[in-house]
Every structure is written in C-alpha cells, then in structure tokens.
C-alpha cells in the first residue's frame, strides 16, 4: 500500500540522471536540435533559466542539484525515496544507455525496472533491443519521436517494432514538444498520424504515449480510438495545457481519456527525475484526486495506478 492512498502504486515513467546522457545527446544532434553547437545550447539554456526558476517556484520545487558522482549512490537514494513513499515498482525509461540503466535496475531489482532507449535508426537497433531485453532484463523501449531521423512508420523500423512485438515488451513513444523551455517545439517526424499507421501494422505491440500526447492530445485520442493497442501515460506536470488555444485542465484530460479509451489503457507515471525534489508525490496525489472526484470505481483506480503497468511490464501472468 502507498501511505494512506489506499492502493498500490506502480510508476511507469521516471528518469535516472547520470550526468550528460550521451545516447540522447547523439539523437538531439542528429535531429538538428542545436545547429549552433555548444554555444547555441548555452545561449538557449541561459534564456530558459528564468522560466524554469519561475516554474519551480510555482510548484514549490527546490532547485535541482547535480546527480551523485557515483551512480550507485544515486540509485540507492532513489530506492530509499521509493520505499519512503511506498511505491511498489518504478520504471526508469532513460538512464544513460541500456547497460547503464540495466546496472541501476540490477542494484535494486525488488523496486526498479528499466527500458532500453537507443537510437531506433541506429545500426542493429532491433538486435540491440533483443539483447537489452533477453540479456539485460529491460522491460520495454523508450524513444523521443521529435528526435527521429525518419518517420515512425518507415519500413526501415519494422524489424525494431517486430522485435518488440515478438518479445511482448511495450514501446513508450514521446510525441509533441521535447525538453523544457528552450527545447524543441516540433519534430520533423513522429506525429500522431505516423504513430497510428505504425500501430495498425503491429496490432499486438503495446504503444504507450506519455504526457497525454502533449500538444497532440486531440489527435492522440483519435489515434487511440482507432488503434486498441495505443495507450496513454499520464506522467509529468502536464503544464502544457496552459499553452493550448482552448481551456484544458488535468480533470479534462482524465475525463476525455477515460471516456474515449477506458481505464485499461491509461497508465500512471510521475516523470520524477532529480533531487532534492525526489519522488513527485504532488503529481501522484493530484492525479489520484482527479480520478476519485470523477467517481472512478476502485478496480479502475487499481488498473490505472498499478495493474496496467504490471500487465505491460510482464509482472502478471
């Protein structure tokens, strides 16, 4: 049980910070995210800093501190944090590369799981997923669609999707804007139309889209309505609703998602990633409150906050 929340919690979406994630940075470079190199990156970061500080104040979050020098210490800190907040299982969807995140998971296998997160357009991407799952015990694949060098439904990626489908592991695909302020507003590839075409070609592959699809929320709900293997992950502050041209709240997101695809295709995530903020109970409590105020029965709450993740991750029969 998780404190006085009255149900088990399995978190489908966290990030393990391990300094600069070279795996993701390489994908950013290929996508042309920083055409001016390190100088342009530093200028954008400086411009975004006031916005980030304002956001942290609004949410009463402390300033981030650097990750521990030893990844083992960072992993131990996360394990203690999860036990403190009585989170049954947590998935690190990124963590510095497949072997790095697998090492983190192996240190606390009672609590932690991990996803592969290599370049889907890289050489032998399908074989690398097979190795990460069968040899290193990872439970899925995470990718950022805005960083792709080609479309999601490109036949060149079919071996990767086919491998994930055969291994029965989910693919978590971030669509919409990437990064915080100063990040990538749109990707050249990876929109909901590509996602739906890919999902139709691999009907037994579980495709999970985080953050309610960000600015593509309407298109995502339509895609999920048409493809029963598309699921939605609830992770993060979902502050992007403030930038939509129409009024949209966390309650609206849950209500429309629940009414469109039902409780068995909604997966809770927190997007926790850094200390000293640690595990973001604020997001969990807000989401649980909304679901209860919508009158969801206990079995639907159980599915959203634990059961669906357990099924996707192969934790149940």
From TrEMBL:
Return the protein name. Amidohydrolase-related domain-containing protein
| PANTHER family in the cross-refs | 2-AMINO-3-CARBOXYLMUCONATE-6-SEMIALDEHYDE DECARBOXYLASE, ISO-OROTATE DECARBOXYLASE (EUROFUNG)
Q: One MF term in GO for this entry?
A: carboxy-lyase activity
Magnesium keyword on record:
no
Which intervals hold domain Amidohydrolase-related? 11-315
Q: Name one GO cellular component term.
A: cytoplasm
Q: Name one Pfam family in it.
A: Amidohydro_2
GO BP terms, alphabetized = secondary metabolic process
What organism is listed for this UniProt entry? Micromonospora coriariae
Q: Which UniProt keywords apply?
A: Lyase
């Amino acid at each position: 049980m998780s404190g006085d929340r009255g149900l088990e919690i399995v978190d489908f979406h966290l990030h393990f910070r391990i300094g600069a994630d070279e795996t993701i940075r390489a994908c950013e470079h290929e996508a042309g995210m920083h055409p001016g190199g390190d100088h342009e990156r530093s200028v954008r970061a400086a411009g975004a800093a006031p916005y980030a500080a304002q956001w942290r104040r609004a949410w009463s979050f402390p300033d981030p501190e650097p990750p521990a020098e030893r990844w083992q210490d960072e992993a131990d800190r996360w394990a203690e944090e999860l036990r403190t907040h009585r989170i049954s299982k947590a998935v690190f969807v990124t963590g510095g590369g497949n072997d790095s995140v697998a090492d983190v998971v192996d240190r606390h296998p009672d609590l932690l799981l991990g996803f592969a997160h290599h370049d889907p357009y890289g050489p032998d991407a399908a074989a690398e997923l097979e190795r990460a799952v069968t040899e290193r015990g990872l439970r899925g694949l995470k990718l950022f669609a805005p960083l792709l060098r080609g479309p999601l439904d490109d036949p060149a990626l079919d071996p990767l999707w086919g491998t994930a489908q055969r291994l029965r592991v989910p693919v978590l695909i971030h669509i919409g804007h990437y990064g915080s302020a100063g990040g990538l507003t749109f990707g050249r590839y990876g929109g909901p139309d590509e996602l739906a075409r890919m999902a139709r070609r691999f009907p037994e592959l579980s495709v999970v889209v985080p953050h309610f699809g960000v600015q593509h929320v309407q298109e995502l709900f339509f895609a999920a309505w048409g493809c029963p293997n598309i699921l939605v992950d609830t992770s993060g502050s979902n502050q992007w609703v403030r930038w939509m041209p129409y009024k949209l709240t966390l309650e609206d997101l849950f209500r429309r998602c629940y009414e469109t695809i039902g409780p068995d295709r909604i997966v809770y995530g927190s997007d926790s990633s850094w200390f000293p903020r640690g595990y973001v109970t604020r997001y969990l409590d807000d989401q649980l409150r909304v679901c209860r105020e919508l009158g969801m029965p206990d079995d639907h709450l159980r599915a959203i906050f634990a059961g669906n993740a357990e099924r996707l991750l192969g934790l149940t029969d």
